[in-house]
Amino acid sequence: MISPEKLDDLVWGGTLPEIEKSAISVPVELTAGCSNFIKDGKIDNKQFNDANESSDFKALMEWANTIKPIIESSPGFSLLKISDVELSNDQLKSLYYAISLGLGKLNNRYGELFEVKDRNLDYKKEAVPVSKTNASTGFHTDSTSAQYSPDIVGLLCLQPGKTGGESIISNTANLYQWLETKHPEFIELLCQNIIRDVITPGSKTDIETIKSNSFPIFSDQTGVFKFRYMRYWILSGHKRCNMEISENLISAMDAIDDFFHHKENQLTYFMKRGDILFINNNFICHSRTEYTDYEEVSKKRTLVRTWINI
Ligand SMILES: [Fe+2]
Predict the structure, then answer these.
(1) Could you count the other beta carbons within 10 Å of the beta carbon of residue 272?
(2) Where in the chain are the domains?
(3) Dihedrals φ, ψ of 123, to 5°?
């Protein structure tokens, strides 16, 4: 059970926050002097070390740090806009990297900067992250590993898709309050350990490993309210262990998805080139609609993800 005071700083009260209206422009005076230390998508350590020493880089990181409170508690997200249309992909990534470092420590499981791009894979046929497909992701939080969960998920848009691919977010502190009122019978179950599939490339995927990859959907064990959910990986984790999933858990997940699918609980935003969206992965759940790409390979929908820990 989560204490009610924990939720006070996290919930969206009254009407939904407005993403577009609350967008923050990254000040041009901070981006103009920043050097480019990404070459062909990779960090050039020498250039990065030089940049890291510069006052421009430090000023950008310090500025990024000032937006952290907006992400740590309600509204739990921040949309930043880099308006210089002349910047190259590598320059945008360099700025994004510096801004992300201003928020915390970057995780390297998939590389510090991970390209979210359709790789013609199907997550329903093999255990691959949905970030490598063009499918609708369904509402989820990032990482299915019991050992690791990012506090913040960052997304930089380099190229939007041709159609679809909107980002949708929902507040799970509001979800918790809604469940307490509408379905209090599910709270205890949702605070217990629940098996998830193992999908991190390179990890062991035997039955014992999957069985031990088990943690609650709602928790506050570390003093932080956490919601960790992706229905598909809960179902496939049980299936791969030959474990029957209880009807009660299915009903509880139906209730969660029912909340997410109500428009009044959703914020939708179509990311444009130069947009950076940071979302709190502890209490904001996200989804992406299915999308199609342009014919040209160079115009393939490309977002760059960071996983950040505060
Ligand atoms: Fe995600």
Answers:
(1) 10
(2) 4-172+261-309
(3) -70, -15
pLDDT of residue 256: 98
User: Under CATH, what is the fold of the domain 4-172+261-309?
Assistant: Double-stranded beta-helix (3.60.130)
CB 132 within 8 A of CB 118: yes
Q: Is the peptide bond before 75 cis (omega within 30 degrees of 0)?
A: yes
CB atoms under 10 Å from CB of 53, counted, come to: 9
Each residue of 217-248: pLDDT tens digit? 999 977 899 999 999 999 999 999 999 999 99
Rounded to whole angstroms, the Cα distance separating 180 from 172 reads 12
**Residue owning tokens 């904001």:** 284
Measured in Å, residue 192 CA sits from the centre of ligand 1 at: 23
User: Model pTM greater than 0.85?
Assistant: yes
Distance 50 CA to ligand 1 centre (A): 32
Q: How many helices (H) and strands (E) does the chain have?
A: 11, 18
Confirm if 214 and 195 have CB atoms less than 8 A apart.
yes
